[in-house]
Amino acid sequence: MADDKPKWRDDGVRIVHSNQVDLNTPQTPGMTRAAAINRSMAGANKLWAGSVEIHPNAKTAPHHHGELESIIYVISGRARMQWGEKLEFVADAGPGDFIFVPPFVPHQEINALRDEPLMCVVVRSDQEPVVVNLDIAAAEKPEEVYWIDPGHPKP
Predict the structure, then answer these.
(1) What is the pTM of this model?
(2) What region does 60 belong to: left with phi over 0, alpha with psi -120 to 50, or beta?
(3) What gap in Å lies between CA 151 and CA 47, rounded to an integer?
(4) Does residue 87 belong to any structural domain of this protein?
(5) What element of type H or E holds 131?
(6) Diameter of the chain measured on Cα atoms
């Protein structure tokens, strides 16, 4: 009967230290992704999490992540997100802000600062490392989008 109990020591909490992340993950030009939480590193079956660094004044190539949902949490720097068929929409996020990217949305992450890296944590809804790089040119003057409701007044 005791053998039926979970082995919490080996099947419980996992810590993946910053020097143990895996850089062997699909990359998008302009950024460096590192996997921290996935099946092989931590035993996760439904989530993928890792870090992303975008160098000062750099931007990624346009891409999407197929059916995956993505959450980006900005640790430091200033993220400028462009999205849409022609990257015609834009919004900025700073430290402490969360960004949600729905499935199949073409997008591009931009480091809006010239002198410091943009550091983020990314969480995805599946283990599949889907990155579909796109060959699209950004709109000349993207429309700035604000999330406006009673809790988020227009700046």
Answers:
(1) 0.84
(2) beta
(3) 29
(4) yes
(5) none
(6) 67
